[in-house]
Amino acid sequence: MIFSIDAMIAFTITMLFVLGFLFYISNATKESVSQSEHFYLEEKTLLLADSLVKNANIENSSLGACVMDFEKNRVKSNYLSALALLNFKPVEKERFFLKSIETAGTKAFSSDKIGKECIAVKRFVLFEGVKQTVTVTGCIE
Amino acid sequence: MKKGFVFSLEAALALVVIASAIIFLPQVESVTLDELMILQQENDLLKVWSYDPPSDIEAMADCTTMFGNNYSLTIDGRELVKKPCAKRAVASEARIVNELLLEQTFKIEVCFSG
Known about the structure:
The complex is a heterodimer. By secondary structure, chain A is an alpha+beta fold. Chain A has one domain. Chain A contains one helix and seven strands, in the order H-E-E-E-E-E-E-E. In chain A, strands 1, 2, 3, 4, 5, 6 and 7 form a seven-stranded mixed sheet that branches. By secondary structure, chain B is an alpha+beta fold. Chain B has one domain (33-112). Classes of the chains: A alpha+beta, B alpha+beta. The A-B interface holds A 17, 21, 24-25, 28, 31-32, 35, 38-39, 42-43, 46, 49-50, 53, 76-79, 121-126, 129, 131, 133 and B 18, 21, 25-28, 30-33, 36-37, 40-41, 44-45, 47-48, 51-52, 62, 65-66.
């Protein structure tokens, strides 16, 4: 077996390069996983907030708090009902849960669970005829 | 004549290969729903204004509540607030007919750095 200094240096450089490449791939994978978790949270919170201001749900107002227009037989989207404030219930799906719903700075619903990462989505509504913002906060465990 | 680095053809080729490998490493692309969120917020304003058509000042106040100073607002072709965007923008436009059957056109444009 022939061994030379040149071969050893070349081998060392190659190994260092491979190590750097593996380190990069490892970091990229971690970042990708973290981004997919954030995307999951963002998607669920956005969809829940949209459902809240576009639908009417008698059983759980967290899924739809709008007024029903029985004359036209349709939901008045972005027009929230005061009755809905009394009927907010928890929403959970896999690792996602609804943390809070705030209307004009007042918490209408709040969960005791502690989230690993949370985001808040602000929506603009008419609440019993008054313009207000509703903030929906969603978290992942 | 000054002494300098001398690369052999093999060394130069090896450097080119290493440089290309570094340049073409896979990049993690950032995906967010900021654009959709802004679009939904713009549509909220237009929807609420369709129930209760606002004055110019009310419309500006509503936009400021939602977007801070990061928006442009045009009503019936009049630019009430103009904010030039450095990068990208999301715009929504709606025609609203008020109780007097007068048509008004509202256009909101919000800048974002996504």
